[in-house]
Design a protein that fits this description.
single chain; 133 residues; alpha+beta; Alpha-Beta Plaits; 2 domains; 42% helix; binds nickel (II) ion
């Protein structure tokens, strides 16, 4: 197999953490570790999409933007088949946190998260796959 080299710019502290990780996992060198991490990520991406999972999506947004709130509600209604529950927390005078619990195919839960994350005014969006069903 032909190997190619490429340069990577990375903050010092992140690289220090990576080197520590490499040591703990007994990798021989950075290249080997990076190849492994890439392969793992690709496996995750390609094979796990159709798996039934439970996911928790968290979003933070400014509720004064009325159109934004409407959009968030519209999107959730269009994914009602996978949304199990949602919880709204008033974080401050301006900001709201919404936690959405979804159950279904990983790819659909990711799509829901991506749709919410791409709304202008949503300042934070995360997805955590918590369990397999
Ligand atoms: Ni609120």
């Amino acid at each position: 197999m032909k190997l190619k080299r490429f340069g990577v710019a990375i903050p010092e502290d992140l690289l220090a953490r990576f080197d520590k990780f490499i040591k703990n996992k007994n990798y021989k060198n950075r290249s080997e570790a990076i190849r492994d991490l890439m392969r793992n990520k690709f496996v995750e991406e390609s094979y796990e999409k159709n798996k039934e999972v439970v996911g928790v999506i968290s979003i933070v947004y400014n509720h004064h933007k009325r159109e934004l709130v409407d959009k968030i509600i519209d999107i959730q209604h269009s994914f009602q088949n996978i949304i199990v529950a949602s919880q709204h927390v008033h974080l401050s005078d301006d900001n709201c946190l919404e936690v959405i619990l979804a159950r279904g195919k990983a790819k659909n839960i990711e799509k829901l998260k991506d749709n919410l994350a791409s709304i202008k005014g949503v300042t934070h969006a995360t997805l955590s796959i918590t369990a397999t069903v």
